[in-house]
């Protein structure tokens, strides 16, 4: 058996294995974008809480911040004190005869609006945590859409690689027949088999890329195994019809909430600079005479040195930083919206041109060349050139559709409210 025949058998076996993989994938249920979003926990379920660790963390942080609001509403606890004086001394104070027992209750009074400032600061932090959690959900939704689009692109490239293998296998068969009948030199058959070998290598690379893309998608909901197969047809991801840099955008809401929290922290720190008096009342018993007396008292800290001035200055500096971050966030947001919108429109126009004009023309040119090749009117190199031109356009279309899907996901994220 010749080396050429052995190579043909090998190529045919690899092709059949790839086809078997395709059939098995078709028998399994394909993962849709909606199912991927639901699996990641983007779509809330009333029955089951999300088990995605990427969502559990931000939501737990929001729960913790709300718990701190409840804690901030609580007033200081009263304090009870018990004292025994003149115990086990010497002379007249020996034993317990001269002992004096005192039982008192004291309460610290918060002045300067401490409780209100503390509650407002905690509420501001809770709002930051809640909005940050919502932003995390929006960011996860963007990642799911982007990686799903990448997985679809990998599936489309895998389908393209299989088509190329099938085409080159047919060309190798035809070249072998033409060589056998003397219409083509043996070099043509070798060239066809080399093209088939290269296509099979590309198919293996496409299979690996498809598995890697599905692995990356499944990682977004915490699974180590690859996600289910996805279709090779890109989903319709529609960006918001109008997207303006308004204060309602979620990213800007977070920046504004952080500034408001920094402002509330200043009021809280200033209130802490005002001393809180403590009032006390109690009863004292004199063991020697069996007499009793009531006690009242007031204690007030003297703010000679520590007036919380350092913490106030730090809070004011944090407010300046938060204000600057808010301004930067607004500027960056406007720039990202403008760039993403322009790039999306350009990708959409490219998809339309490639799908409606370039690809049909390349398909027709390849069809005519293949007919001519079967009839011996065109050499093999013409078929390969036409096929390569068609495949290049298909790859460009896949890339344009992938770019459009990613940019649509970005616009949806930017428009999150």
Automatic annotation (TrEMBL):
Gene3D superfamilies given in the database record: Outer membrane efflux proteins (OEP)
InterPro entries named among the record's database cross-references: MdtP/NodT-like, OMP_efflux
GO molecular-function terms, A-Z: efflux transmembrane transporter activity
Family per similarity comment: Belongs to the outer membrane factor (OMF) (TC 1.B.17) family.
Protein's recorded name: TolC family protein
Protein source organism: Pelagerythrobacter aerophilus
